Amino acid sequence: xxxxxxxxxxxxxxxxxxxxxxxxxVFGLGCLPDDGEAVARILxxxxxxxxxxxxxxxxxxxxxxxxxxxxxxxxxxxxAAEHPVTWIVPPARYLPNWIxxxxxxxAVRITxxxxxxxxxxxxxxxxxxTSANLSGHAPARNRHVLRRLFHDLVDCIVPGQCxxxxxxxxxxxxxxxxxxxxxxx
Length: 185
Prior knowledge:
Elements: H1 6-14, E1 19-22, E2 27-31, H2 36-46, E3 55-58, H3 73-77, E4 85-89, H4 97-100, E5 106-110, H5 114-123, E6 127-131, H6 143-150, E7 156-157, E8 170-173, E9 179-181
Parallel strand pairs: 1-7, 3-5, 4-8
Antiparallel strand pairs: 1-2, 2-6, 3-6, 4-5, 8-9
């Protein structure tokens, strides 16, 4: 599978595709959040069950409005941080069960990675985002590993470099502020 421009990748997502793309620290696999078939493909690619839930990334808060129940999300989700933060927030009432899995909240992040943000904009949507790896294995941090593992399993690979993070993003529970997973650059 060849790397392709962002606008074409956005079209592939809108047509039900699964794409691989660089993010803050690792390559990710993504699709539109309301596409159950595409989500099922991602879970099959990763060999992962649906109970863990999935993260939604967006380039801006407006792309998350249909997925969360947080009227004043803008100031919290986009607050300045030393590193990217994934927030656990209340889900929208009719959120598909594959997004939250067995959890009561939904994990969301305003992505700071320019390619991932541009991909959200090209798809005109928040995206399901999960690390490009088989469940329990290290995620792909370079294109060579990504292509070797996933070139026949995804519809396209968006070109770009991963950001400087060496660990997954920090996860915080919004209402309590509890850090569920620490993350550093």
